[in-house]
Design a protein that fits this description.
The protein has 348 residues and is of the alpha/beta class. It is 24% helix and 26% strand. The protein binds NADP nicotinamide-adenine-dinucleotide phosphate and zinc ion. Zinc ion binds next to loops.
């Protein structure tokens, strides 16, 4: 076994704190990764606070992992010691179902093995995430981080980046398409940068006017504060695609559906603890679509990393020490993150 240090949650209400645990010894196809940086995703907070349901504690969160290969198993062919690599939201999947065979492991019909709050392939060992110094992952679920992406800025791409890249590609954001981004947090700001690089016309829909200058600097063509309700009349029927990254269900979804053109789609990637509700009418009236999307596959995540490297797209980050994780959590919950916290795991 490999001894690991981590930052863990011990209950839904207590602050996170240090914890020591064991990683498996590398098997034939495993890669041992020295974790250098790990992003803080709002999903980490939803999970450790049991907002999505009961979980098993202690739990080490973190699925935006960037690091350097320390060791490889005897049959590993894709990576070697010293490579820059990443790990996202899952570390394995059944590899046999129709979706895994189509390289859509994120939609594995048996449920993928999530990076934390799940079990390893043995069906029993709890998985533990990236707020730690080392992780052991099968080479087929490891991503290559292009050399021109610094590891601290690459980390958030492994969840925030891919979660918005996937629906932007699936619903064909690009030249001539008007894309709205609800919420300018970790996911939202990556949606702005990626949609802009794809050639779309991008509007940020934010719940205050505080982030306007930042949004325009990131490449948004337009910024609207939804605090001023008149924007919903002014922009009615003008969007081809809206990506909802908001972490709260405290939204009048009907207002947002009214912004879509005929046949256009609003994709929710935000995963609040309470249901999103909408009357049938805004959907019926212009044959609008309400969709969801879950992270992305391994192939698509690699494609996104290469796309970001090519277009020089990286997140806006604030690097914090492991001891500051609880303060960072409070700031994320208050929408006071600019725009992703990344933990320097070397300081553990
Ligand atoms: P985040 O950094 O906290 O950003 C969320 C943003 O939502 C905030 O910055 C804020 O933007 C807006 N917001 C928050 N509370 C609001 C409220 N009461 N009313 C209106 N707007 C509000 O979170 P994140 O890490 O980007 O994650 C966003 C959501 O996506 C979370 O629910 C997370 O669990 C989920 N997620 C889903 C997937 C997936 O695969 N589908 C993957 C990762 C994360 P403004 O200040 O601009 O309004
Ligand atoms: Zn995430």
């Amino acid at each position: 076994m490999i001894s690991a240090k981590g930052i863990a949650a011990f209950s839904a209400k207590e602050p996170l704190g240090p914890w020591s645990f064991q990683r498996r010894s590398p098997k034939d196809h495993d890669v041992v990764i020295d974790i250098q940086f790990c992003g803080i995703c709002h999903s980490d907070i939803h999970t450790v606070r049991s907002e999505w349901g009961d979980i098993q504690y202690p739990l080490v969160p973190g699925h935006e992992i960037a690091g350097v290969v320390r060791q490889v198993g005897p049959k590993v062919t894709k990576y070697k010691v010293g490579d820059h690599v990443g790990v996202g939201c899952f570390v394995d999947s059944c590899r046999e179902c129709a979706h895994c065979k189509q390289e859509l492991e994120n939609y594995c019909l048996k449920g993928m093995n999530a990076t934390y709050n799940s079990v390893e392939k043995d069906g029993k060992t709890p998985t533990q995430g990236g707020y730690s110094d080392v992780i052991v992952v099968d080479e087929n679920y490891v991503l290559r981080i292009p050399k021109n992406l610094p590891l601290d800025r690459a980390a958030p791409l492994l969840c925030a980046g891919i979660t918005v890249y996937s629906p932007l590609m699936h619903w064909k954001a690009g030249p001539g398409k008007r894309v709205g981004v609800m919420g300018l947090g970790g996911l939202g700001h990556m949606a702005v940068k990626i949609a802009r690089a794809l050639g779309a016309e991008v509007t940020v829909l934010s719940h205050s006017d505080k982030k306007k200058a930042d949004a325009l600097k990131m490449g948004a063509h337009q910024f609207v504060s939804t605090h001023d309700h008149s924007v919903f009349q002014e922009l009615a029927g003008t969007f081809d695609l809206i990506i909802n990254t908001v972490s709260s269900a405290d939204l009048n979804m009907g207002d947002y559906f009214g912004l879509l053109k005929l046949d256009a789609t609003l994709v929710s990637v935000g995963a609040p603890d309470k249901p999103l509700t909408v009357s049938a009418f805004p959907l019926i009236l212009q044959r609008r679509n309400f969709a969801g999307s879950l992270i992305g596959s391994i192939r698509e995540t690699q494609e996104m990393l290469d796309f970001c490297a090519k277009h020089d797209i990286t997140p806006e980050i604030e690097v914090v020490s492991p001891k500051d994780v609880n303060t960072a959590y409070e700031r994320v919950v208050k929408s006071d993150v600019r725009y992703r916290f990344v933990i320097d795991m070397k300081k553990l």
